[in-house]
Batch of 4 targets.
Target 1
Amino acid sequence: MFGADIRIHVTFLLVLVFVWFTEAPPQGPAGAGRGLALVAIILGSVLVHELVQAAAGRRMGVPARAIILLPIGGVTLLDEGQQMAAESGAGAVPLWKRELRVAAAGLLASLLIAGISAVVVLSMYPWVGLWKLPLVHSGHLLRSLVWCNLFLVGFNLLPAYPLDGGRVLRALFARRVQSLEATRQAVSLGQGIAILMMFAGMVWNTWLVMVGVCLFLGAQLEERSLVFHSVLEQVRLEEVMLTDFATLSPGDTLQDALHKAVHCLQDDFPVIRGSDMVGVISKQKILQALRASGNSYVQSAMNQVYEVGQKGESLSGAFHKITQGGLTLIPVVEDQRLVGIVTLQNLMHSMAMLAESRRLREN
């Protein structure tokens, strides 16, 4: 939606189990269904909040690649290339202003839903009692819709990353320290607030425990994303490229190419004529061509349009090319000479290993 993949975090499953065990039994056979409906209300409220923010970010030239939904809000993964362009271009909006505008859009959307729902409850179902305790309960779904959105606004005003207030705070931190350190400070603050919430929930309300757990996991998710993007920016292709790889010739038959593909770990091959690279072909493309037209030559099935990378290029650039272009292989060249390849499989494996290595060093 709005160009972003929408993913649901496993904490929603925890919320579902929590609601069923704490609220469903007293309501009898209908309890499970009403518990599911309450979780659907929470999910829908968060989804609208995050989609409005994604639309606002897109209007400011920073589209989201993916949104991971948690019961307290969402973690947004931005398009790195578009983000850098938005921050460095002429007339660029400062980061803190952009975060403030995006946060305000989501908060206003949640307030609007809460307001409309409250009017419906007060005018059509006054006996429900908008202020009766518990405010959020599977036995009173209309009242829960109002308060879920109001609580979503209230929690997102907290200066706890990855909530909206924490994002604005992180942007303000970034005015005096590097972005990496600013995010780390905001994540630490968010985890501290999450722990306080969990302790407070043990005394006052068990829902606070659940919110604290979700907030802590959300901050941890942002920290992992931070390390991941740090690796993307700082590691160069020459550090992860494969230098021992198989190649094909445009004059090879598809049967020969398939035989070579079976006996090596590569899924994608550069096609070389003499010392020049003339195309790329994947194992899947070889199989498709064999099924469609029988045994012919690699030249007839290879892709002659492809992206190349430089040895000194960052992983961020390669990752952007692969995800935006739907590529599976990037040849790495130096002085127009093929010196290595980066495949989607080896890129993801390398980034995961480098991110984990960096986290272990920092700890």
Target 2
Amino acid sequence: MICPFCQKTFAAREAEKACRNCALFGGCQKVKCPYCGYESPREPDFLATLRKLGNKLRRHTDAST
């Protein structure tokens, strides 16, 4: 994930859960940036997969040039 506030990259598993006791729909699914504490929604799984694929393709293209 990239924090929308401080622009630092972190893994969602590194982030603290922003709301542990929320009763809404099993929790609010927000994460807190470990660097600045900004709360943001959790990155959807399909976006994480697309980002990983893009990074892999970018590394492959950089290596072939």
Target 3
Amino acid sequence: MNRSLRFFILLFISILLTACTPPEMDCARSDIYCVGLVTDTGGLQDYGLTQSAWEGIQKALADGVIQKADFIESVDARDYAKNLGTFAETGYDVIVSSGVSLEDETLQAADLYPDSVFIGLDQPADPSRQNFLAVNFPEDQGGFLAGVLAANMTDTGLVGAACETSGIPSNWQSCAGFRAGVEYADLGVIVYITYREDGHREDLFRDEAWGRATALDMIEDGADIIFGVGGGTGQGALLAASQAGAWAIGSEQDQFQVRRDAGARILASVTPDAGPILIQLLGLIPLAQPPSLVMGEMRLSPYHEAGRFIPLALQDTLVELQQALKNGTVSSGVPSEKPEEE
């Protein structure tokens, strides 16, 4: 084959490949709808809030609601502002930040980049910013589901919850919801609720020793199911229950996946589900300004190894109850704020 013929063949192949390769989407264009997700330092696959958010964004992409989706996993909290700015400066229409730890940086980014809409998951609403939306979660409903599960699975008639400080509204709502769920089951089950109120602030969400000691005290008093709430603090309670042969119920993340050392004795976990509300918001944002605060959903994780111990009728009941809580036909009765007398 002579050089000229070979050149033209290679040129033809190059042109053909270029024609078959989709052009890179430019998020600065008004007809390209781009969404970016910035995670906290827990990363994308956290078996909880962030993972459910990405699932929702991916579903919106597959359904044609948006045209481009990307994520940035934050390695260090000092990177939050930079990561948010990376998406904003390249023209992303909507930027989702996952977790309360990004609250300050997200609000600052909303001020710096008014042409982008920011969605803060598990962050307080700020109506003064027109381009910021907050998505919170009905933690009381998650606790309620955990309470009904515990009340129906206990053999001793006594269950407990080891909870990070009640001064954090989401923790208080989750544990108050647990009590309400136990009472809703109406089986005469006694429930203990203990909050970590006197520990060092530096140990918030990571006081495994307190969680462990609190759970063991409850088990010694007869509790055979422990609900652990509050990051590492709650995980300490789960591990103690597992090692003592009691059942445990996790929160915030699918703790079976996160704490394999306790997984065999974890009945289930209650986790926030950001997917459905994100799909809805991503469809609404181009049409009109949605409200500054919207509510996501809570869901029960898979039962994993414990599934064979949980009666199918109870599993069906919990599915129905989750839907009833969502549509408002059943209420936990837990107020939005902790009463002063508690």
Target 4
Amino acid sequence: MTDIDFMNKVEFDGANDELIDQLLSSGNDQERISGFELYYPKVSRNPEIRKVYNLINKVAQSNASVLIQGETGTGKELIAGAIQAMSLRRNQPYITVNCAALHEHLLESELFGHEKGAFTGAINTHIGKFEQADGGTLFLDEIADMHASTQAKILRVLQEQTFNRVGGNKTIHVDVRVMAATNRDLWQEIELGNFRADLFYRLNVVSIHIPPLRERKEDIALLAQYFRKKFAQELKKSPGDFTQETTRLMINHSWPGNIREMRNIIERAVLIVGEKQHIAPKHLAMTGKDYFAAGGRNRRREDIINSELPTLKLETLERQAIVLALQKTNWVQKEAADLLGISPRALNYKINQHKITHPGWRRNAF
């Protein structure tokens, strides 16, 4: 059974551990790696993601241009991949280009190709991405970073399905579906003169907006479980489940890096946690600021316990906790205050009270 066949049998309310296990164990190696990541919207509990997936099902069967918008790390490329995988062009080339990764002239050559001798260093004819994608789909990531001159040529291809290689006169005809993605507000970019309005309208035949993870709290635990099991499988480890405190922290975290951030944090947690050991907040490697912003309360207590303090006298414990926090932050007082969950002013007062000094400090640091 393919991932597409399997996912078509799944109801939204069936998003659970059993479903994740089936996704990770079904299909060939490539499907085990990519299946859930391509089709995770299908098992999302978030109504906006459900709408996105319903739209994907309709869009996939057409040749319409698609514009996918959302914050960094929300999975725009995964959504584009899902559209391609379910489209009529799924057996044809699927070419992706990161428009932010290349200089203007390099991007133009990469997209449209160039003729031999077109510029210094062009020792051979180069076939561009549009030709490579002929009959299939071209995904342009971070399209807002594209230079205006290249935008004009993209517009021509969308309108006429023709272009010329750099340095060439021959008109080349292609049949290419274009999907694009950006993490910027294109209306604002248009008003600033950075993006062509006519290109926006051409790309925006179908618009898909991916909500950030912080607006999809009902999906956080599901995604976290998937990544925990995925990386346990890849690393051949058997970590325990997330503790209740860890789950609560993840649900309350703002996730500025969205799904990409979650993926990285959980991969690290699975890597460092012991066999059969539950994943605790300390394994998430959140900064002190993120930890306390997400409602964490036990980090100071764990640090004190783990430091094997020789006394329970409150004054001594407080002084040693402050010193421990300062040591962990390389004696940067603002970061230590953040780690301790107090204001920099309060920490400065306690440092003076306990007569704590360090050679690298300047007087009146705050």
